[in-house]
Amino acid sequence: MIPSVLPTYNRAPLSFVKGEGAWLTEADGRRFLDLGAGIAVNALGHAHPALVNALTEQAHALWHVSNLYQIPQQQALADMLVEHTFADTVFFTNSGTEACELAVKMARKHFHDKGQPERVEIITFDGSFHGRSSAGIAAAGSEKMTKGFGPLLPGFVHVKFGDLDAVTTAITDRTAAILIEPVQGEGGIRPVPDADMKTLRRICDENGLLLILDEVQCGVGRTGRLFAHEWAGITPDIMMVAKGIGGGFPLGAVLATENAASGMTAGTHGSTYGGNPLGCAVGCAVMEQVATPAFLEGVSRKAGLLRQKLEGLVADHPEVFEEVRGMGLMLGLKCKATNTDVVGAGYDNLVITVPAADNVIRLLPPLTLTEDDIAEALIRLDKAATQVEKQLATA
């Protein structure tokens, strides 16, 4: 008999009842060090006082009115995002998946309203992940994402990750945009080199295309800049944001230039819950913390320390790990052992990591991780790796 919760996840046998900072407490009282942060969502950790206060104060005042009216908290968050980014305008969603849907619509509407309705195709990359909506899975294109869900939404052209010649070859008079994650998350923590980001921007400019960046996982301070593309010194035309922007509250956004968003007039898109007072109050509190030089410098400093220690972990356990990859506090350990076995050994040793493609485990800790947390993380990861080594020896 099918369970009451649709069985689309292979859930670990863990039930967390309380969180504080980088720590989670299981129902049986065990304390786990959380290096997953809800898959890069809890940017400020669990139960951050500023977020608790923002949510509580707003909950006592007003929850929901709909986008038929002005929402001061939404305006405030939009103004903050415009101030700190390339964007001229923002639309708020509840998730990264919804942000993907709008980004695709926005790019196509842009060209339709400019008298080029044939320009609907969007170039995407293998290993990508853009959510699980019809547009998202069609954009990713992998069999794992799409099998059994046809017919797929047309209009996506897939090229090999890192093959810029293939990008140029794929461009036709039907091409509207290029869509890419500056750091692939689900795909195995694969950063796009700065030089490639610059080249993609140039390709878009030379061919009159829009550059869409998916920063759902790599944005909001995770790489040590407010958004990952800033390292390459380029800007997109459209950007998808979610996860960290709400610090655990469901919130997403599409940021865009005035030119890219020119087709999105009244009635072309909407959301019942997107940009509600609760979500935007929390989003403002997140931005007040994350969008400061001191905070971002702290992320980079802690990321350097964590990476240094992880390099040592890899050297100490060559039968388990191959390399460290990633940027900032979006790191991956490429495994020689089966990555899910390493994740499971982590559970046994009270440390949480997240599996990804390419036999990688992701480390996506809260950006508020302390140096003491990092030291403890390495102790627990070392124990997990030792456990895997023993399993390999007896297999």
UniProtKB/TrEMBL annotation:
Q: How is the cofactor bound?
A: Binds 1 pyridoxal phosphate per subunit.
Q: What residues bind pyridoxal 5'-phosphate, as annotated?
A: 96-97, 129, 214-217, 272
Q: State the UniProt keywords alphabetically.
A: Amino-acid biosynthesis, Aminotransferase, Arginine biosynthesis, Cytoplasm, Pyridoxal phosphate, Transferase
State which pathway it belongs to: Amino-acid biosynthesis; L-arginine biosynthesis; N(2)-acetyl-L-ornithine from L-glutamate: step 4/4
Swiss-Prot/TrEMBL cofactor(s):
pyridoxal 5'-phosphate
Q: Which PROSITE patterns match?
A: AA_TRANSFER_CLASS_3 (PS00600)
Q: Where the protein is mainly located, per its record?
A: cytoplasm
Q: Which residues bind N(2)-acetyl-L-ornithine?
A: 132, 271
Sites of N6-(pyridoxal phosphate)lysine modification:
243
The keyword Amino-acid biosynthesis appears for this protein: yes
The UniProt catalytic activity note for this protein reads: N(2)-acetyl-L-ornithine + 2-oxoglutarate = N-acetyl-L-glutamate 5-semialdehyde + L-glutamate
* Keyword Transcription regulation attached: no
Subcellular localization is given as: Cytoplasm
One Gene Ontology MF term:
transaminase activity
InterPro entries (UniProt xref): AcOrn/SuccOrn_fam, Aminotrans_3, Aminotrans_3_PPA_site, Class-III_PLP-dep_AT, PyrdxlP-dep_Trfase, PyrdxlP-dep_Trfase_major, PyrdxlP-dep_Trfase_small
What is the E.C. number?
2.6.1.11
Q: Which domain of life is it from?
A: Bacteria
Remaining remarks? May also have succinyldiaminopimelate aminotransferase activity, thus carrying out the corresponding step in lysine biosynthesis.
Q: Which PANTHER family match?
A: AMINOTRANSFERASE CLASS III (PTHR11986), SUCCINYLORNITHINE TRANSAMINASE (PTHR11986:SF113)
Tell me the protein family, please: Belongs to the class-III pyridoxal-phosphate-dependent aminotransferase family. ArgD subfamily.
Matches recorded under HAMAP family = ArgD_aminotrans_3
Extract the NCBIfam families matched here: argD (TIGR00707), PRK01278.1 (NF002325)
Partners and quaternary state? Homodimer.
Can you name this protein?
Answer: Acetylornithine aminotransferase
Instruction: Give the gene that encodes this protein.
Output: argD
